[in-house]
What we know:
Blueprint (H helix, E strand, L loop, with lengths): L2 H5 L3 H24 L6 H34 L1 H16 L9 H7 L1
Helix pairs in contact: 2-3
Amino acid sequence: MKIDELRGKSKDELVGILFDLKKEQMNLRFQRTTGELSNTSRVRTVRKTVARINTLLAQPEIASQKVTAKSKKDAKPATSEKKKVKAEKSSGKEASDVKPAAKKKAAK
C-alpha cells in the first residue's frame, strides 16, 4: 500500500491492517522455509508496508518526544548535581572538598 492510502485511514483501521500484515508476514516466512513461496517479492512488500504503518502510528509520539528532549537539555545541570552528591557520599568528602572535573584537569 502507498503511504497516501494509509494516511487516509483511521488509527483503528491501521491497527487492523497491521495485524493482518503481521499474520501474512508469518505465513510468508513459513512458506519460504518449506520452499512453497512462489512470489518472493511479497516478503519485501509486506515488510515495507508494516514499517510505513508503524511510522504513521508513531508520528504523534515523535512530536511529544521532541518536546521532552528539549526539556531534558534544561535538566542536565540537575542530573550532574545528583552525580556530585553521589560522589560525595561514596567518597565521604564534604561538598567543599570535591573539585569539579575541569579543575582536576587544570591541576594536573
